[in-house]
Amino acid sequence: MRKILAAGLWAVLAWGSAGKAIGAEGSANEINSPAGADHLSRAVQFKTISYQDPAKFDPAPFLGIQSYLEKTYPLLHQNLRKELVANYTLLYKWEGTDPSLKPILLMGHQDVVPAGPENEWTQPPFSGKIADGFIWGRGTLDDKVSLMGILEAVEYLLGKGFQPKRSIYICSSHDEEVGGSGTVAVAALLKSRGVSLEYVLDEGGSVTTGVIPGVQKPVALVAIAEKGYLSVQLSVETKGGHASAPSLDNSIGILATAIHNLERHQFPAALKGVTEQTFQAVLPYLEPKMQFIFKNRWLFGPAIIQELEKSQAGNATLRTTIAPTIINAGEKENILPRKATAIVNLRLMEGDTIGYVLNHINRAINDPRVKVSILGRANQASKVSDLNSEWYRTLAKTIQEIYPDAVVAPLLEIGATDSRHFQELTDNIFRFTPTFLNGEDLERAHNINERIGVDNYGQVVKFYILFIQDSER
Q1: 31, 145, 150, 268, 301 from 461: Cα distances, Å
Q2: CA 470 to CA 473: how far, in whole Å?
Q3: Which superfamily does 4-226+382-470 belong to?
Q4: Inter-residue contact 206 to 7 (CB < 8 Å)
Q5: What is the pTM (predicted TM-score) of this model?
Q6: Which CATH class is domain 228-262+319-381?
Q7: pLDDT digits (tens, 9 = 90+) for 247-263
C-alpha cells in the first residue's frame, strides 16, 4: 500500500517540475505519448481488490489484468522469463549479460483496497477515466502506477535494443494489501535458488511539494526503513450470566478497561534514527527561523516532539503506535457475554522488539484476566538502508535527473510494504514511488478520488527508464 501519508508529519511544523529529457536512443517526447496513460487507465479497470476475508478473493480480475499485460507488453513477454508464484503473484526475470553482477529487484503490486462509497467519487473508481488531465481510479497512486510504470519502461527499453548488464527481477504481488503472502513466497523461492540482490526498489515516499513549511524546493522522500508490524488479540473469558443480575467482572468491562489502560500508556516518543536523518537532510533548505530551531534540538527537542505529536502521521514517526481496530463481544441484549476479544494493531519503531512491545502491553494492562496473544504474522522493524551506499546515491541521482530541483531526503515508512520480505537477500531496500504530489494529492491514496496527472505518470515512466540505465554499474 502507498505510505505517502508519512509525509504528513511536516504539516504540523507550521512555525514560520519539469523533468530532464531521457535517452536510451530515444527522446523524452516518445514517452509522453498517450499510450502509457491509456495502459494505466485500462489496468485500473480490473477490480483486483484485496479483502481481509480470503473467502471474498476473486481470481478473475487478476487473471484478466495478467492477460492484458501479456497483450500490452509483447516485447517484455518475449524477452523476460515469467513465473507465477502463489498462483497469482508475477515474477519476471530480465537476464543480464554479466552473471558476475548481482541482480536488482523492482516492485509494484497488482491488488488495491476497496473503493468505498462509489457515489462519492468524481469519476467511478474502476473506470480509469482520463479527464481534466488526470487518470482517475483506485490504483493510480497505490500501486498500479508503479507496476505499469516499470513494465512501460522495460517495453520501451527493449524497443530501443537495450540489454542490461545485471539481471533485473520484477515482482508484482496479488495480495500486498493484506500481508503479501505472494511476495513471501517469491522471497523464499529466490533464496532457495541462492539469489542475492544488489538492491530492492518498492513503493514508498514521493516527490512532494507544499508539505514542508519553510522549504520552497520539492522534497523527494525515500524511505530507507519501515516500522515493524504486530497485531495482538486481547481476550477475556468470564462466567457470563443473565443481564438482569450483572456481575462485577463483565468480560466487556474488563476488556474496555484493558484497552483504556493500554491507550493511556503510550510508548515513549523520541526524535531519533531515520526521523532525525530526515530533519538533517532538509535542514539546509529550511527558512532561517526553522533552521535555528532544528540546529538547537538540545534545547527545542521537546517542543519539536510536542508539535509532531499533534499530527497522526507525525506522531507515528516518533514512537511505536497503538491502535485498537476490532472488538467482538455479546450475541443478545439480555445475556452477559462469556467472551470478549479485541484486536490491537501496533507499528514498531526501530529498536522496539516484539518482545519489548509485548511486555509493555502486559504491564500497561496489568490484569491477569486479559490474555494477550500474537495474531497472524509479526515483523520486527526493518533494517535501515545505508544513506552512504552507492545505490542510495544512484537513486538520488536519478530522482534529480527527473526532478532537478528536488531535495532528496530519507524517510521512515510508517506502514508496511512487500519489500520487507526481502531483507535476507539484500542490505539495500528503498521505498520510493516517483510521483510528484502536493498535500492534497497525498490524501487521495486509500481514499476517494484517487488519481494521477497524465504528465505526472509520464515522469514515472521516465524515472524507471533512467533508473534501470543508471543501475548499469
Answers
A1: 7, 9, 7, 41, 40
A2: 8
A3: Zn peptidases (3.40.630.10)
A4: yes
A5: 0.91
A6: alpha beta
A7: 888 999 999 999 999 99
* 287 has catalytic annotation: no
pLDDT tens-digit series, residues 310-353: 988 889 999 999 999 999 999 999 999 999 999 999 999 999 99
Return the domain boundaries, the chain: 4-226+382-470, 228-262+319-381
Q: Which of 155, 175, 176, 177 is catalytic?
A: 176
With contact defined as beta carbons under 8 Å apart, do 214 and 286 qualify? Answer: yes
Q: What is the C-alpha separation between 386 and 395, in angstroms, rounded?
A: 12
Side-chain-side CA neighbours of 378 within 13 Å: the count stands at 19
> Is 111 a known active-site residue?
yes
CA distance 399 to 222: 10
Q: Residue 391: enclosing H or E segment and its boundaries?
A: helix 390-402
What would you report as the CA-atom Rg of the chain, rounded to the nearest whole angstrom? 24
Q: With beta carbons less than 8 A apart as the criterion, state whether 410 and 222 touch.
A: yes
Integer Cα distance of 469 and 473 in angstroms:
9
The answer to whether 368 and 290 have CB atoms below 8 angstroms apart is: no
Angle between helix axes 34-44 and 59-72 (nearest 10 degrees) is: 160
Compute the distance between CA of residue 85 and CA of residue 92 in angstroms, rounded to an integer: 10
> How, if at all, do strands 168-172 and 321-329 pair?
unpaired
Select which of 111, 143, 203, 450 is catalytic.
Answer: 111
H or E element, residue 410: strand 407-413
- Report the amino acid identity of residue 154: V
Who contacts 262 (Cβ-Cβ below 8 Å, separation ≥6)? 322, 324, 344, 361, 364, 365
CB distance 348 to 234 below 8 Å: no
**CA pair distance 261, 275, nearest whole angstrom:** 28
Name the grid cell of 121: 467519487
> What is the rounded end-to-end Cα distance, in angstroms, of the chain?
30
Q: Which cell is 179 given?
A: 500481508
